[in-house]
Write a structure and sequence with these properties.
The structure holds 2 protein chains of 2 kinds. Chain A is an alpha+beta fold. Chain A folds into 2 domains: 79 residues, Helix Hairpins; 117 residues, Heat Shock Protein 90 (2-Layer Sandwich). The longest helix of chain A has 43 residues. Chain B has a single domain, classed as Response regulator (Rossmann fold). Chain B has a 5-stranded parallel beta sheet, with helices on both faces. Chain B is of the alpha/beta class. The model of chain B has no long low-confidence stretch (mean pLDDT 90). Chain B starts with a strand and ends with a helix. The chains are: A alpha+beta, B alpha/beta.
Chain lengths: 214, 142
């Protein structure tokens, strides 16, 4: 790792940040499943001792497990898609990233980050757009702008990210009602944006437009 | 003696399932899903133990622990976390947490810790009362 280029190091660090957040979510799912399964076990012991058990309580515990399995499945699917976003293109393949899908994935991955800050993150209007940038880099870029927007938001604020496809690229627009969204000022974001040929500036309505060349 | 417990976690299903399991074990359980509700609960009632999630929206468990210990130093807090790192555990214990457990937690270990918390709190309250009696006796000159 010490021999990795700065770009690679930042990328690995970002991958670690997302993995840590996802693993925390998975632990929460397991914790709920553990308590629901334990509750079913408690009910079984009570029934063995001749205590009457309301079937509705059993049903609630079973439904809780089923709900958490669905939640865990979604979390793992998102993590899997994120892991594959770093795949190298096949030799000779003309690689293109579907930015609409990538934005959806980013919003799913960063929703927990929003929840922790007591703000909301939603997908706005999305039109089809493709880019030659890797999916991983696009998610990393979005993490930079979304994270900076969160840092300037207060509890209850709502961030919407929309995507507009253009002939020579695409624009992600980040808007928060009643607030101006500024681009991140850190060196990591600046270097990544430069490498991707992306620009970020706040428009006259206070929304942040992040434009990515195709 | 029934243990009076406050369970703080933002996961609704976790709160419902764990609190029901604790009630099955004879505990008197209250729950709070937000840090604001938790602070209200701590201010309005006495608890033998507080079981607190380390990662809560708005205020993390460590900050919440500081608030609880500043206002009620005798309160026994058991922290629950998805990722129990040694550093976080040490920080929590330094700030006065009684114990630190990783999720998913074993109900028997948690129950044992809650019973220990109750005993510890009773001891603190008894010592406090003893101190007050001594002060009164000293001030009255009996």
């Amino acid at each position: 790792m010490n021999n990795a280029s700065p770009d690679n190091r930042e990328g690995v660090r970002f991958f670690g940040t997302v993995s840590a957040s996802v693993s925390h979510e998975v632990k929460n799912v397991l914790a709920v499943v553990n308590e629901a399964a334990g509750l079913l076990e408690d009910f079984t012991v009570m029934a063995e001792r001749g205590m009457p058990i309301d079937p509705a309580r059993l049903k609630r515990a079973a439904q809780s497990i089923q709900g958490q399995v669905r939640r865990g499945d979604t979390i793992i699917k998102n993590m899997n898609a994120f892991a594959h976003s770093a795949d190298a293109p096949e030799a000779g393949e003309d690689h293109e990233t579907d930015l609409a899908e990538t934005l959806r994935l980013a919003v799913n991955l960063f929703t927990r980050m929003a929840d922790m800050r007591q703000v909301s993150l939603a997908l706005g209007e999305v039109t089809p757009a493709m880019s030659r940038a890797s999916g991983f880099d696009v998610i990393h870029l979005l993490h930079g702008v979304i994270g900076a927007a969160f840092a300037a938001m207060s509890a209850g604020d709502a961030l919407t990210v929309s995507l507009t496809g253009r002939d020579k690229g695409a624009t992600f627009t980040l808007s928060v009602p009643g607030r101006s969204v500024a681009p991140p000022g850190d060196a990591e974001f600046t270097a990544l944006a430069r490498r991707l040929g992306a620009s970020a500036e706040t428009d006259e309505n206070g929304a942040l437009a992040v434009t990515l060349a195709r | 003696m029934t243990e009076k417990v406050l369970l703080i976690d933002d996961e609704v299903d976790f709160l419902e399932n764990l609190s029901e399991r604790m009630r099955v074990r004879g505990m008197d359980v209250s729950t709070a899903q937000t840090t604001d509700n938790a602070i209200d609960a701590v201010e309005s009632a006495e608890y033998d133990a507080i079981v607190l999630d380390l990662q809560m929206p708005g205020m993390n468990g460590i900050d919440m622990l500081k608030v609880i210990k500043e206002r009620h130093p005798e309160m026994q807090v058991i922290l629950l976390t998805g990722q129990a790192t040694l550093e976080a555990g040490i920080e929590a214990m330094k700030l006065g947490a009684m114990d630190f457990m990783e999720k998913p937690a074993d109900i028997n270990s948690l129950t044992e810790k809650i019973k220990k918390a109750q005993a510890k709190k009773m001891l603190i309250v008894e010592k406090k009362a003893e101190g007050k009696v001594k002060d009164i006796l000293a001030s009255k000159g009996w």
